[in-house]
Amino acid sequence: MTQIFAYIPHKNGAAEDVALEYPEAAKKIDAGASVTAVVTGSGADLDKVAGDMAKIYSEVIKVDNAALAYPNAEVVRKALTAILPANAIVLVAHDTFGMDLAPGLSVKLDSAYAADAIDFEGVDGDALKLVRQELGGAVSTHVTTDISAGAVITIRPGAFAPVDGGSASGTITDKSGDAGDLAAKRTFIEVVEAEVGDVDITKSDVLVSIGRGIEDEDNIEIAQELADAMGAVVSCSRPIVDAKWLEKSRQVGTSGQTVKPKVYMAMGISGSFQHMGGVKGNPFIVAVNKNPKAPIFQVADVGIVEDILDFMPELQEAIEDL
Amino acid sequence: MEILVCVKRVPDTAENEFELNSDGNDLDRDDLVYSVNEWDNYAVEEAIQIVDKVGGSVTVVTVGDDEAEEVLRREMAMGANNGVLLADDAFEGSDGKGIATILKAEIEKGSYDLILTGAQADEGAGQVGGMLAAMLDYPYASLVNKIEVDGDAKIKVGREIEGGNQEMNEIELPCVLSIQTGINEPRYVGIRGIRKVAKVEIPEKDAGALGIDASAVGEAGAKTKRVDYFVPDMGDGAEMLEGSTDEIIEQLIEKLKAKGGL
Ligand SMILES: Cc1cc2nc3c(=O)[nH]c(=O)nc-3n(C[C@H](O)[C@H](O)[C@H](O)COP(=O)(O)OP(=O)(O)OC[C@H]3O[C@@H](n4cnc5c(N)ncnc54)[C@H](O)[C@@H]3O)c2cc1C
Ligand SMILES: Nc1ncnc2c1ncn2[C@@H]1O[C@H](COP(=O)(O)O)[C@@H](O)[C@H]1O
Fold it and tell me: Whose CA is nearest to atom 42 of ligand 1?
């Protein structure tokens, strides 16, 4: 029977949503697998999360140490390397913490590594088959990974159906004593909160969101005029902020704002998961993109293959004529 | 400060419409436009800015074929001092650990204080930097969007975390950092800059020169392998509006009205 360990990320005493998604991912790896939740942290927050996880998982391992109070990947890696059995299959969320932790963990466990799985197609012999994407979601691939000596696999948050909150009464095993020496060469100082901008894109029902397809800073005007005609606000994808054309507070995505508009107009945005991860609440998504193969068309409700620089002014005019 | 930046030549996502080849097992690569991985370009710019401030040199390295040399030259045109090409047929089909193993061998031949990678490359893995650090037993920070060099033994780095917040850390040197876009504004490289470095000698090293056991890398050493590329079932993909632009706009306006967009 395959033994799978799911690393539970948590903040302020609450597990991240992905904690409810690992069981489905594990089931797709092996329907008969036993899944153990692994929670590291310190004090009351840790106990709260471990208790919550025992309602979902039949086995929970907790590691309590003051050095784990803030999830420093180097420290967590040391603790996991010390407590996990040989050949463990470990699931980690492909988020900013998982990207910090998981690749190095697989080196220290001397096991296989696979990143950002969005689906699993079972195990054949030693080979686990999984689905992932490349090139910003433009193409999908099947990948096999040899799990005979264990594996660390990151899964994309939101890709697997969540289980219900649960009412199981799992056992919590305290492995704090096994964590070993947790001294690290990297030390956490503080979290600096994102700056608040002049426009709050989270408050608008309609967003005209621009991506790299806007091509030039001067063209942002075109999007602003369309937004004005629609009574909407202009938001954007990350490259627009990287180029300093708009403020960070306008960025939609996992490293930007989470928005829940009624209507989301994605103009010249390819539709990467980090961008779409910030679009919540199931809005009506309109995508305009000159590439008919753009991945955004897989997630949009309505797709239009046009050049946004021509299309936006025409749409604006038609709206003004209503 | 001696800085090594790992760079990769990748298909440019902004310039290409990706299609599968006729067998369906690879991309149709004939007409693909390649460039340096976006994240790596930010890493090289950051390295150059650090060296401009505190002195030292910047070396760019890639594991690739002969064509990968062009990205080394491009980054040298930006201001990197040296380039190294790690090329061998035995490297083909390497997984992330294979690439990290090859890079590690080159790093151990030098004496670097700081090693930079991109946060991720074309395969969207984000794995090589963290693996490399663990193999070298160096500390690591991923998704770095700020570097403050204020000493020889330690530096301060900001990591981008969810919601655009920034996690500040102190990290001992030598270390490996993966660089996130937006950390700086990479300088423009013109044709003239490229021409200036066109004749610079770029050393090429193979498995033998690096002292790597060829069976530990490449297809032979890879535990994780790509089987095929495929086009996902679109499921209920978008309803594509068709017709003249006027007709499309007419349909769109009706839908926007119904959905509360107007
Ligand atoms: C850890 C991490 C966090 C990230 N967080 C975020 C985030 O919060 N938000 C975010 O957006 N990204 C984020 N990213 C980046 C993300 O992976 C993508 O790189 C980014 O979303 C791409 O932005 P884009 O769609 O605007 O650009 P591209 O992917 O380059 O797409 C541009 C699109 O515009 C189309 N186009 C070009 N010209 C025109 C035209 N004239 N008319 C019509 N269409 C045109 C092209 O066909 C293409 O589809 C993150 C990445 C990482 C690694
Ligand atoms: N073939 C390669 N040669 C040199 N560096 C690489 C190579 N592949 C990946 N890297 C480095 O690792 C980073 C992350 O890539 P990846 O782990 O493939 O997503 C890249 O941005 C590069 O800095």
Answer: A307
Cβ–Cβ below 8 Å for B261 and A263: yes
Whether complex ipTM tops 0.85 = yes
Q: Within 10 A of A86 (CB to CB), how many other CB atoms are there? A: 9
Tell me the CA–centroid distance for residue A272 and ligand 1, in Å: 6
- Domain positions in chain B are 2-221
Question: Which of A207, A212, A250, A264 best tests ligand 1's pocket when mutated (most atoms within 8 Å of CB)?
Answer: A212
**Ligand 2, pocket residues at CB < 6 Å:** B 6-8, 37, 39-40, 62-64, 96, 99, 117-118, 120-121, 123, 125-129
Q: How far is residue A317 from each of residues A225, A306, A320, B204, B256, measured CA to CA in Å?
A: 10, 16, 5, 58, 15
> Could you say which architecture CATH assigns to the domain B2-221?
3-Layer(aba) Sandwich (3.40)
Contact B39, B180 (CB under 8 A): yes
As beta bridge partners, residue B170 has A187, B156
Amino acid in the structure at residue B92: E
The ligand with the least distance to the CA atom of A304 is: 1
What CA–CA distance (Å, rounded) separates B233 from A204?
33
Cα–ligand 1 centroid distance for A276 (angstroms): 10
pLDDT in tens, A22-71: 999 999 999 999 999 999 999 999 999 999 999 999 999 999 999 999 99
Ligand nearest to the CA of A194: 1
Nearest Cα neighbor of B145 from B174, B89, B185, B112 is B185
B167 touches chain A (CB under 8 A): yes
| Domains delineated in chain A | 3-178 (3.40.50.620), 201-320 (3.40.50.1220)
